[in-house]
Amino acid sequence: MQVSWVRVVLDIPRQDAFDYRCEHPVQIGQRVIVPFGSRQLIGVVIELLPAPALDPDQIRDVEQVLDDLPAFSASWLALAQFASRYYQRSLGEVILPVLPNGLRKPTAYLGKRSAGGPVARADRKKRSAPATVVPSPIVLNAQQQQAVQQICESDGYAAYLLHGVTGSGKTEVYLHAALTFLQRGQQILMLVPEINLTPQLETAVRARFADLVAPEEIAVFHSGLADGERLKAWADAQRGKLKVLLGTRMAIFAPLDNPGLIIVDEEHDASYKQQEGLRYSARDLAVWRAHQAGIPLILGSATPSLETWHHALSGRYTRLSLEQRAKTRFLPDIRLVDTRKAKLNQGFEPGVLEAIRTRLERGEQSMVFLNRRGYAPVMHCAACGWVSQCPRCSVHTVLHRTPGSGYQLQCHHCGFQSRVPSICPDCGNQDLQPLGRGTQRVEEFLQDIFPAARIQRIDADSTRLKGSALRLFDEVHTGNIDILVGTQMVAKGHDFKRLGLVAVLNADSMLFSADFRAPERLFAQLLQVAGRAGRHAEGGEVLIQTGYPDHTVYQTLLNNDFPAFADDLLAERQDTGLPPFTFQALITAEAKSVQRALAFLQEIREQAATVLADEGEPDAVCLYDPVPLRILRVAHVERAQLLIESASRPALQRFLQQWLPQVQAIGQKQRMRYFIEVDPLEI
Ligand code: ADP
Ligand code: ZN
Ligand code: ZN
Hints:
It comes from Advenella mimigardefordensis (strain DSM 17166 / LMG 22922 / DPN7). This protein is an alpha/beta fold. Helix 1 packs across helix 2, helix 4 runs parallel beside helix 5 and helix 16 (about 595-615) packs across helix 17 (about 650-670).
């Protein structure tokens, strides 16, 4: 019998690898079922050992080597290893969570001696790809052509920032470039920020590549898929059966071994950042992956992140610009509606309502954008000042209309729900009022004043059921809707054909956020939502209600001058020593009381000073004072954070490497829950 020793990674926090004896043929990158304590776990073999590092008697046996899928390739393992090092997590905490459920739960395999698990075995049928290509119906303009040519002529790794206003034809550039790499026999990985954007793009991709790529060689990958669908897409990727993979951030980990081009659409979008578990940036991993594979990467955006813009200025990325809208030569007419002296009607300036009426009469669609779901952000008592508050969190509860005709208070942070009190809990006043408005209330109001209009609301509430987002967007696309009321869900990417008017209601609420990225985000969001108007005909109009029309964010939007805006912000970031000129990491501690969380952070901060002194670079890294989070308490847990900053990414990484084992020791001693985030987006 052949016996070997293997090193296996498991999904165990902050612990590296575990050694086992294996009596079956096994290779690096294979999944195995192993005993761990009293449990059985699936792990991945990362090393074959010439001899055991421990007393062989203490080493347990691999129970089963799974061969339902090919082993992970060295390049895929290298990606996982990089993510593990960079984001400061154990390798198992990277590899296992990115696998579809069926591939990491031993229950599906146990009792089946020869490895037949949840994935059907690969069929051996081979299909020869036909040589013909459907000609694209669109003739690229000069700038598009130039971009495609440059991308396709890249010699090895190259990162391109494809900067073009919404509707300038970036998608066409992606598709044309992708075609070239498909013809070379390579795979395409394309990331989009939103699940709801995948159907539109999938249809385009399938139609465009129909003669070159069989239907089963194109897959989508996102969290909205059922377990089985996700498993199938992953298994097809790992078996080398895919030519095109389209997905949201999680698709960056797909096991594709012959990629030719990686595309990240709307690269600035915050949804590329995973906000739990392994807190990775799919955009940044895409850069690493393209570099490792020696292939080009397209980062597309109308409003690039300042990180990307900075790289484009410094020459690290090549900037390709699309300066005109591809179809209509005109951008929508953006106007600021000054609300300071206006008498608002349910949040609408009268002229805005008139503009909607005009579009209705012309048979065109309007969109009302409001980044707040629910009926009203809070209930209050005018007599004593009581406001509806979540008992578990330090936030207000939001008033929602429920499917019947009742109302309910909901916490958007912990999910707490309660009925609406009939009298004020503090003073007994019987006249509690909703304060402010969300999408439900706006919808109700518009239906009141435009009774004949077909109104559709699209937000996280109206699209909760699987498939309903798709259906609602279809309604809008087919023209059965006159007024669309929505949150950021409707702002991204959609190409609505009859949409003439966009009205933005509460943009100012983002203007004075404490987050240093707020202006950048607001600008991106406004430009994106504005970009939905008039994509197919002239006369598109965007009305933005604001009490601060002179603010630079709005003024830049009017001039449509992203470069000037970005340059200003970059200068400011450089002066104040913020990203992209510095690099950050964040440790968040969670405890019953914020005092405990702060005390833990204070102690690890003192430890840090010793580490830095020992390394001989006491000033390479700066640790700020620990502070409570802006929303202090969520679900009875209080949170505080410690910001770590350095002018050098390698210095920050070196420091974290040295320091985190000590943080872990202190955390264990104090039984503190905490997590680390490298390159945090929100601080
Ligand atoms: P973006 O991704 O930059 O927002 P799209 O690629 O979606 O823009 O293009 C916007 C619209 O213009 C689409 O309907 C697209 O089919 C069309 N389009 C793109 N390029 C051209 C072109 N060269 N000629 C005509 N129409 C084009
Ligand atoms: Zn009261
Ligand atoms: Zn709550």
